[in-house]
Structure formats: C-alpha cells, structure tokens
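Subject: Response regulator transcription factor structure
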Amino acid sequence: MTRLVIADDQAMVRAGFAALLAAQHDLEVVGQAADGAEAVQLALSLVPDVVLMDVRMPVMNGIDATAAIAAAGIPTRVLMLTTFDIDDYVFQALQAGASGFLLKDALPAELVDAVRVVAAGEGLLSPRLTRLVIEQFARAGAGQASVSPSSSAPSPSSPAIEELTQRENEILVLVAQGLSNSEIAGRLFLAEQTVKTHVSRIFMKLGLRDRAQAVILAYERGLVRPGSDG
C-alpha cells in the first residue's frame, strides 16, 4: 500500500485529490497539510511514500518544503503540483529534491498514474518538462547549478562517470530526455527489465536518487544539450 500526504492551501483541492486517491485500492491518504511547514511536519512524523506538494503555499512554499524533506534523509518522495506557468519552478524544485511534476489540470487518471510512478522510484519528468530544465540551464549557465542543495554528485572527471559503459551512457541520455523504461526498451530493442537493471546501475554508480536528478546531471556533464530531445 502506498501512503500519501497531500499538501495544498486550498481545502477543496485537498479534498478532491484525497477522495480520488483514497478510492484506489493501492493508495492510502494518511495526512493533509495546508502549508509547506505542515507538510514537512507530517512527512517527518508519518514518513509517507509520497507527498503531493503544491508549489505556492503560505508559511513555507512547496520548494522549500521539498528541500527540507530531502535534507531529512527520509525515503519520502515529492510529486510537485504546478500551474502551466512552471518555467521558474521546475529547475528550483528539482534542485530541492522533487522526484516529479504534474500540472494541476491533469486528468484524474494521470494524477493516479503519476503517484504510482513516483512511489515506484522512477521519477516523473515528461519530455516537455525536460526541455524546460535544459533551457533553464542554458539561460543560467550550468556552472551556477548543482544537482541538489545537499548533493554529493560526482565531478565531471569523477571515476564514477568513467565507469559507465557505452550502453549505460546511451541509456542515461535517453533517461535525461524524458523517456520511460518501456520507451527506452523500444528505442534500443532491449527488454524492459534489462533497461530497468541498467538504470538502477547507472543511478548507483552516479549516486543519483531518480530520473529527475539524472536530467540535471546529464546536462551538467554535457551529455544532453538544449534541443536534444531525441
């Protein structure tokens, strides 16, 4: 059973999300928060699998709350809820430790699927959002960015980077372009389980938490560039 906390300052939105998610046989809503500070408190006390986190909230915004949860070292993953105007938030939230993003106008089935994907540890970052992140790097300059505030990601000359096989490098690029395991399997004519194994090894070698961090790291290391969306 996947345990969830929903954080949104609008009571009607929280109630709607809670009703939808609680109706799923494999999901359980264990807490609701009206602001970022309360979301952090619930995450630390309940240690849910996923926090559904709104970006704009009083007391503490969703990005700062996400950073606090990530810094606590608990296994809770954060799925950010954003409006269409996300350019300024995607990059910041990834750095803070978010594992995925979902637009607030997403279909109910998309919300349920997104929660399951993030809970499974795969991270959720669409090709469109991936391009936004890369474009943000292009504007700000990769030298001003890091994988996350508390990250110990390897440097460009790190042996961990050199330890990646040619296939692993190829798969990392596709992950960073927003492709799912099944899409990568189809692109490379591999079994999906084989791709999943490769992805797990890549993340272990590079000290990455999920696909969201892979996007940033791949850009920092020059493996993907603006416009390299496959």
